[in-house]
Specification:
3 strands; 13 helices; 5% strand; mainly alpha; GldB-like; 268 residues; 3-stranded mixed sheet; DUF2268 domain-containing protein
């Protein structure tokens, strides 16, 4: 809310201003109407977390904390709780979502502000937070692909009935593009010597969110590094079916994981 620190003498005044804002009040009423009964979402989250804990029993059960962030933050993960800004999961057709400035909230972001994604995004954020602690970034593209692939592999186990495009928060045609073009994308990455690149700008093209991947045109899928990494881990798991999910996630030898990868096997 950015009203300042509690010890700031103006913080209470700013908080009162914030809470009495008519737009904020209207948004809160819409959130209250949409999430009158949170039990279904809570149960879906609880079941998903239990599935993760089956493989990773050392993980604490996080509390679920819901709030109206005024479109500042969708998921705030922590080892003790998962914070959810419910306004991010209303409906793309909500008048408050439609009022958002397109420069800060482009169409692809607004299209993702759907209730169906709330449990997936919550657990994904929690996994990113918990698994990041055992990981070190600022390495190369392969390293980040493997990390995000591990996150998605666990997320898939957390929601075994979910469509994979929903877990990736992609439209069906974007996921199909990734499936149809994975071999060509991989050849491009290898031929351009991008796989072991430590250039942040180069890496971000494949792992940062967006409507598509610039290098492959406006019809392409975004976050191709996540998708490739997920397929790498699936291939590795298939080749090492004697390993548990925890053992697969704890595998630090990325070259060993890479050896199992077959870009032609996408989602088979």
């Amino acid at each position: 809310m950015r009203v300042g620190y509690p010890e700031d003498s103006l913080a209470a005044f700013r908080l009162q201003q914030f809470s009495s804002d008519t737009l904020w009040q209207g948004l809160q009423l819409e959130i209250d109407a949409e999430y009158q009964d949170f039990n279904e979402v809570y149960q879906e989250l609880g079941n998903a977390i239990l599935r993760v804990q089956y493989f990773f029993p050392e993980l604490n059960t996080p509390n679920i904390v819901c709030f109206n962030s005024g479109f500042n933050i969708a998921v705030y993960p922590h080892k003790e709780f998962i914070g959810l800004g419910l306004e991010w999961f209303l409906n793309p057709e909500s008048r408050y979502v439609k009022m958002l400035p397109p420069n800060n909230f482009p169409l692809y972001k607004r299209q993702g502000m759907d209730k169906k994604y709330i449990a997936y995004d919550a657990v994904k954020g929690w996994l990113l937070n918990r698994m990041y602690n055992d990981y070190y970034f600022n390495k190369d593209l392969l390293h980040e692909m493997v990390f995000y692939g591990k996150v998605m592999l666990v997320l898939e186990q957390a929601f075994p009935q979910a469509k994979i495009e929903d877990l990736f928060k992609l439209e069906e045609e974007r996921m199909r593009w990734a499936e149809d073009n994975m071999h060509g994308v991989w050849k491009h990455i290898v031929s351009k010597n991008q796989l072991f690149s430590t250039n942040a700008r180069e890496i971000n093209k494949y792992v940062m969110d967006g409507p598509f991947t610039n290098e492959f045109g406006s019809e392409s899928a975004p976050r191709l590094g996540w998708i490739i990494g997920w397929q790498m881990l699936k291939d590795y798991a298939d080749e090492h079916d004697n390993l548990t999910l925890k053992e697969i996630v704890e595998q630090k030898n990325e070259q060993d994981i890479l050896k199992s990868f077959n870009p032609k096997s996408f989602n088979k």
